[in-house]
Amino acid sequence: MIKSIKTLLLVATVTTLSACGWHFKNNDVLPQELRTLTFESADEHSDISRTLRQQLQLNDVTLVKGQENIAKLRLVNASTSSKVVSVFKQAREAEKLLSLTVQAIVDVPNKGAYPLEVSVHRTFFDDSRAALAKSAEQEMIMRDMYQQASRQLIIKMAGLNKEINQPK
């Protein structure tokens, strides 16, 4: 009897919490100075710029244009590379290592500039006999890498909390 009441209470709690849209909020890890940003990029419409802007908005960061005395996130460079990791018996490429390196600078007024760099790596099986399918797969992998790099940049921005709040 008690076990069924506990089960019913647990089901009711889970149902209530999931139905009302309640979820854990861990977005408070970003320093207050980085809650409102100006985002700058050499190419505003590149894949990494769009993905980073989207991840910032998902983390409740307000993006504004051209205001003074607020923090600035500047996307400096995003570079991709690929290396052959293994080959087929016929000496054709079999597997590649795709790498994405993103460099950014967070400039906080009266606090300083903080360089950030993240790298993401993925392996990709490249079969030249299915070139069109592999091209689409590689694009999906790159989109995933952009998202992961953007999340890592936000994590590194959260890590600046101690440095930003340190008295100079």
Q: What characteristics describe this protein?
A:
Double Stranded RNA Binding Domain, five-stranded mixed sheet, flat, 4 helices, alpha/beta, 168 residues
Describe this protein's structure.
With 168 residues, the protein is an alpha/beta fold. The chain has one domain (27-167): Lipoprotein like domain (Double Stranded RNA Binding Domain), CATH 3.30.160. Helices cover 37% and strands 33% of the residues. The chain is built from 4 helices and 5 strands; from the N terminus they run αβαββββαα. It has a 5-stranded mixed sheet, with helices on one face. A hairpin with a 5-residue loop joins strand 3 (71-87) and strand 4. The termini are far apart. The mean pLDDT is 85.
Query: Helices and strands, in N-to-C order?
Result: HEHEEEEHH
Q: Give the total of domains.
A: 1
Kindly name the structural category.
alpha/beta
Number of helices: 4
Query: Briefly, what CATH class?
Result: Alpha Beta
At the fourth level of CATH, the homologous superfamily is Lipoprotein like domain
Give the N-terminus to C-terminus distance in angstroms. 63 Å
Helical content (DSSP H or I, runs of 4+): 25-40%
What is the strand content? 25-35%
Low-confidence stretches: none
CATH architecture title: 2-Layer Sandwich
**Bulk shape:** flat
